[in-house]
Amino acid sequence: MPSRDPAAPRDLRWPGALALISEMRRNPGTTRAEAARRLGMSSGLASDVVGRLRALALIDETPAPPLGRGRPTRVLCPHPEGPVVLAFDIQQRGWRSAYAGLDGDLHALSSEPYSNTDPERVLPRLRDAVQAARTGFGPRLRAVSASVAGTVQHGRVTESSALGWNAVDLAGMIGEPGLPVLVGNDATLAGLAEARTGAARAAGVSLHLSVQVGIGGVLSVGGVPMTGATGAGGEFGHLPFGDPALRCPCGARGCWDLEVDGRALARHLGEPVPRDPYDYGSAVLGRAAQDPRAAAAAGRAAAALGRGVAGLVNANDPDIVTLGGLGWPLVTAAQRTFSDAYRQGLMRFRRTGPPPVVPAAYSEDGAPRGALAAGLDVVLTEAGLDAWSAEKAGPVRLT
Questions:
Q1: How far is the C-alpha of 234 from the C-alpha of 186, rounded, in Å?
Q2: Is residue 385 part of a domain?
Q3: If phi over 0 gives left and psi between -120 and 50 gives alpha, with beta otherwise, what is residue 167?
Q4: Which residues, 6 or more positions from 23, have their beta carbon under 8 angstroms from its beta carbon?
């Protein structure tokens, strides 16, 4: 009857393997010995697991940059023939793609501006990019993960005022048979990147906020984003922290979105709604140090940001708050105003040791990094590794 070689690589114990791969993801440049020590794993077991992972083209070891005389150090790294994940970052002005191996390190692939954001024009281009990646990587491509500037539920873009999309089945329109496709909100995924390897990596509970066109974010607990029952959680910009006389494009009144981004700065300056609120806001904040009117507008937006952050801290009790997009430039332009509003909005018992508010580590590429991390979470499961192992272990041996 058919049987397998008892020493075949697919006999690997996945819990130990997953733990070692996770250590490589959390601590780039780590050695086998360092990873084993942090995991409480014996050196013999670590050597055995690494050897089996190498045989399955999952992990390799490469020389570290020399630090002086002595025996060269070798660090854990993804195998050059190992699994990869493709990510898209879909924003108001265009999209870009990147890929990563098992360490989650981002490698840019391509980018493309829009001439038209109509999904009937954009999505075929994304599908072409998926097909090109599948041709280029072959069976190494294990998942696609997309970050979108919009509200996402169950893999569908429910609403995106930045793109003008409503009820777009992004996963269904760019996916291919046998290839998982994940879709998430850009601010949520940026928060995931901060919680895993960024400015909040040491925190148990972190709150990430990103000011783009409006403000979004996520609360992460133990590196896991809290996205609610349908995946649409974290739409903090639609909390009623603003002027109820103002109607938001989402349909609600008084949204916080309208108080903190480029649209708010334009309103305070008596100027029309900008076509690109992010670029407009960046320009206003850039001249705030020399322009009193720009400084006053920045101060009003910073006060609204500080009050809202305080409310979210009171409600969610995070260890740390990270700010992405225009969030930190806004704080920098009006530091005292933001700090005063933040402190005054906190409950009294929080004021002696409030959660620090810090800049995001990934100011430009947090969303695609988070998308890659989410994709790797799907690949790096026992089922995902079983599937990879079955392809790598070769045919059944007959005895």
A1: 11
A2: no
A3: left
A4: 30, 35, 38, 39, 76
Q: How far apart are CA 112 and CA 289, in angstroms?
A: 34
- Residues 121, 211 share a domain: no
User: Where are the strands (E) in the chain, listed by range?
Assistant: 2-3, 59-63, 74-78, 84-90, 94-100, 107-113, 141-148, 151-153, 156-160, 165-168, 181-185, 205-212, 214-221, 224-225, 320-325, 357-359, 397-398
Mean pLDDT of 344-367: 95
With beta carbons less than 8 A apart as the criterion, state whether 292 and 284 touch: no
With a CB cutoff of 8 Å and minimum separation 6, the contacts of 75 are 29, 30, 31, 61, 62, 63, 64
Contact by Cβ (8 Å): 90, 130: no
DSSP designation for 336: H
In this structure, the answer to whether residues 228 and 160 fall within a common structural domain is no
Q: In this predicted model, what pLDDT tens digit does every residue of 316-355 receive, in sequence order?
A: 999 999 999 999 999 999 999 999 999 999 999 999 999 9
Angstrom distance (rounded) from CA 59 to CA 21: 8
Boundaries of domain holding 32: 2-80
Tell me, rounded to whole angstroms, the distance of Cα 132 from its chain centroid: 23
Token match 């005895």: residue? Answer: 399
- Token representation of residue 385: 């590794």
CATH code for the domain in which residue 206 is found:
3.30.420.40
Tally Cβ neighbours within 10 Å of residue 287.
Answer: 13
